[in-house]
């Protein structure tokens, strides 16, 4: 079946951000929407795992939250460790005066997308696959400002607005000639052992006995290495017969390039070298040794920070380009901010695009887009700064700064006993400061 020849809004990319944009536009009464994706269903590789409180608030405004809440784990605690030593935990439950959702929702990206797709299906909005955009050009035969969007299939669609939600290697961004680089000029992306991360959804030979507060997320860093560990939500688990966990580990620089799909053996070698003692398979290190026994999914990630120089562009005599999600910003996944920030980009765009459509003079009202774009870019640069601060703390030279770090950690443990500190950390991670 061929694509429609014309649409008001073309959304390129059907990950969580593209789907959220469609939900937001529909909620605003914009129904002439076309969503395309370059790959078949289930072939997107990104696997975010956490939705922050501010993003839950945004999803609630477009009626796409009940299903997600029924599937995910409501995480109130995030524990931070230095090696085997406990430092502090944030407590999202302390955010109850500021949000209806005083927790982080632990839910795999596949389930997030499934919940959004179910809602769009109820609204009779479909995703057209696989259709890959190859060019955007101002339409030559139209009286109004439109793009001719050409696809690899040979189809051409005229669109007034094109939303680029097509990831870090965005064709939309490239066609609009929008630069994409580190906002601090740090284009080497050398973060030591954190320059690469390996991820996996795994089962162990025996449940790890990790000092994780409640059913929360545990972060461990030591000597420039990093490990994340969190239980999978039971209703979203790839294996209902046993406990499954998401693990993320730094990759020692001496390893070279990590495997595309790390094996159980490779992931365990990382946990033995980089992780906390409680995830070690060595009985000399761990009194309750365990080992990665089965891998349900695994991948690698190269740490990079980049932000588009602008999120909005208009070609002379052409339509408007708007960027959201990874097409607009990428950064270290530390803190679980990427997908959440992108979804908020998408949902915040709905009322702005609606106001633009309703304006008497479309060209003059481009100021609406400029204001939205500047605001969202500012937030992205702030998140990049936060993740870089975290990278800097983890990769700090331990030998040189050992006495200072020991003192700092002692102070951190002491401060971590105070409720206001737990609330402050949770508030910053939640994204609520942006609202």
Automatic annotation (TrEMBL):
Residues 6-385 form the FAD-binding domain. Its cofactor is FAD. Keywords: FAD, Flavoprotein, Oxidoreductase. SUPFAM superfamilies: FAD/NAD(P)-binding domain. It comes from the Eukaryota. GO terms for molecular function: FAD binding; oxidoreductase activity, acting on paired donors, with incorporation or reduction of molecular oxygen, NAD(P)H as one donor, and incorporation of one atom of oxygen. This is FAD-binding-3 domain-containing protein.
């Amino acid at each position: 079946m061929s694509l429609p020849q014309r649409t008001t809004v073309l959304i390129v990319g059907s990950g969580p951000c593209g789907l959220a944009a469609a939900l937001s536009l529909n909620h605003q009464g914009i129904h002439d929407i076309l969503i395309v994706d370059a790959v078949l269903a289930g072939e997107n590789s990104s696997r975010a795992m956490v939705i922050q409180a501010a993003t839950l608030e945004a999803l609630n405004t477009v009626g796409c939250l009940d299903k997600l809440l029924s599937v995910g784990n409501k995480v109130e605690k995030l524990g931070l460790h230095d090696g085997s030593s406990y430092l502090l935990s944030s407590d999202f439950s302390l955010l109850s005066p500021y949000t209806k959702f005083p927790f982080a929702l632990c839910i795999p990206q596949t389930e997030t997308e499934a919940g959004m797709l179910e809602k769009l299906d109820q609204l009779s909005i479909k995703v057209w696959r696989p259709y890959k955009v190859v060019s955007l050009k101002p339409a030559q035969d139209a009286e109004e400002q439109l793009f001719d969007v050409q696809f690899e299939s040979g189809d051409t669609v005229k669109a007034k607005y094109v939303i680029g939600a097509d990831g870090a290697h965005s064709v939309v961004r490239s066609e609009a000639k929008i630069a994409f680089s580190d906002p601090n000029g740090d284009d080497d992306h050398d973060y030591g052992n954190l320059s690469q991360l390996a991820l996996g959804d795994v089962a162990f030979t025996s449940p790890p006995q990790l000092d994780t507060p409640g059913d929360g997320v545990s972060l461990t860093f030591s000597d420039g290495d990093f490990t994340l560990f969190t239980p999978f939500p039971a209703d979203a688990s790839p294996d209902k017969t046993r406990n499954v966990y998401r693990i993320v580990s730094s990759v020692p620089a001496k390893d070279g390039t990590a495997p595309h799909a790390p094996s159980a053996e490779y992931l365990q070698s990382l946990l033995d070298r980089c992780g906390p003692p409680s995830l070690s398979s060595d009985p000399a290190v761990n009194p309750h040794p365990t080992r990665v026994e089965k891998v349900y999914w695994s991948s690698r990630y190269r740490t990079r920070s980049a932000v588009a120089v602008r999120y909005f562009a208009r070609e002379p005599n052409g339509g408007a380009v708007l960027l959201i999600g990874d097409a607009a910003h990428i950064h270290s996944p530390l803190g679980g901010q990427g997908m959440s920030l992108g979804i908020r980009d998408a949902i915040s765009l709905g009322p702005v695009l609606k106001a633009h459509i309703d304006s008497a003079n479309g060209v003059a009202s481009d100021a609406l887009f400029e204001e939205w774009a500047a605001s969202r870019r500012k937030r992205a640069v702030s998140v990049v700064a936060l993740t870089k601060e975290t990278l800097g703390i983890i990769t700090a030279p331990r030998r040189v700064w050992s006495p200072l770090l020991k003192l700092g950690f002692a102070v951190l443990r002491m401060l971590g006993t105070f409720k206001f500190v737990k609330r402050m950390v949770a508030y910053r991670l939640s994204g609520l400061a942006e609202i």
